[in-house]
Write a structure and sequence with these properties.
Length: 384
């Protein structure tokens, strides 16, 4: 039977002392463990920043869409103010009182206002609502159901045309008239968000000037109630997560629209104080997100201004995108906790190995001492 030739590597053995192995493991595992802990902590912070920036981007996108919606509705109402039928109705009223004193015109308007709900002005109301201008306004409302009501008044505030009978004949009292004509003739007025109990609709009151064609002279104003329920429904969605939500908020922290929130309750947002503090600094505005504490829990909140307050003082609105920090970071933290447990396990095993080494070394020393004690009497006896 032939023997298999022995290769040089068959008898190769690597012998490393336990002490050297332990020192090597300590030099490798301990630094790597601390590096792992540091990287895990930094990754947690970096992910939080990434989510904050992502939420800020969502808020900016929703803010731009909200501003576009308001501007589009304002342009729609402004287009009505240049309707030929509207301008013609105001011009006819001006011609009918040509040559009359302002006091006479004002006295006539006050007389109609005082009897506005009485039967004797029924024919006047019927004539007003059946005019070509009123018919044109109703036709436009049929095309765009978001337009709820429209009123046209001349420069004295007297109603000239309307889709429905207005509450008053003279319009200077409403805030829209003061916004369009009282402060600066020719400006556009947008009211705060309002709610109609009968129709269960949220709406804005938009007032625009009616200018004379050719001269640009202020001759009246057009006021429209515009349904914005479709805008508010954008913020009712809850598809971002169990605790995530996109919210429309006033600049005093009052919720306008959010998932499972009724705007009519005028609730204050718990996260808003932290957002308000950030908005008060240039750095906070540039960062665009904060980590706010709410009822003992941290929430990542991205925010953006819709940018309309300078143009419309009643629209100091903000978009907030918020999510519970624990839920937002849950996928990463599961991996981080696993990595942390591996680090702890490695350190524990290294500790046990170190303890074993020192205990084993102590036992060897004790064995050597006992052997030396036994050999000493034997040597003495042999000499004798």
């Amino acid at each position: 039977m032939e023997r298999r030739p022995t290769l040089p590597f068959d008898a190769l053995e690597i012998r490393v002392s336990l002490q050297k192995l332990l020192i090597g493991l300590i030099l490798v595992i301990v630094p790597l463990s601390f590096v792992g802990l540091y990287l895990t902590s930094e990754s947690d912070t970096a992910l939080e920043q990434t989510l904050g920036i992502h939420f800020r981007t969502i808020a900016q996108t929703e803010g731009a869409a909200t501003a576009q919606f308001i501007n589009d509705r304002t342009l729609d109402v402004a287009a009505l103010a240049v309707n030929p039928a509207v301008r013609k109705a105001i011009a006819e009223v001006e011609r009918s009182r040509k040559g009359l004193e302002n006091a006479t015109v004002a006295a006539r308007a006050r007389k109609i206002e005082s009897a506005w709900d009485a039967p004797q002005v029924g024919s006047l109301v019927e004539t007003l609502l059946s005019s070509p201008a009123s018919q044109a306004l109703r036709q436009y409302r049929e095309v765009d159901p978001r337009i709820l009501k429209i009123i046209v008044a001349d420069e004295t505030g007297a109603t000239v045309a309307a889709t429905d009978k207005p509450l008053h004949y003279i319009q200077p009292d409403p805030a829209y008239w003061q916004g369009v004509y009282g402060k600066l003739a020719g400006s556009v007025y947008v009211s705060e968000l309002r709610y109609d109990d009968q129709s269960n609709l949220h709406y804005l009151e938009i007032g625009v000037p009616v200018l004379e064609e050719g001269t640009g002279r202020f001759v009246g104003a057009l006021n429209a109630l515009v349904d914005v329920s479709s805008l508010l429904r954008r913020f009712k969605r809850g598809d971002m997560g169990r605790t995530a939500r996109t919210m429309l908020v006033k600049d005093d922290g009052t919720l306008i629209s959010a998932p499972k929130v009724d705007a009519s309750r005028k609730l204050k947002l718990d996260e808003y104080p932290a957002v308000s503090d950030a908005l008060g600094t240039l750095q906070g505005r540039q960062i665009g997100y904060v980590v706010a504490t709410r009822k003992g829990e941290n929430r990542i909140v991205g925010f953006a201004d819709i940018g309309l307050k300078a143009k419309y003082s009643n629209l100091g609105w903000l978009i907030l995108v918020s999510q519970d920090e624990q839920e937002a970071l849950a996928p990463f933290r599961s991996v981080a906790h696993f990595a942390l447990s591996m680090v702890v396990l490695a350190l524990l095993m290294l500790t046990l190995l170190t303890v074993y080494f020192f205990l084993h070394k102590k036992q060897r020393l004790e064995s050597i001492e006992m052997a030396n004690r036994e050999e000493t009497p034997r040597g003495t006896a042999a000499s004798a």
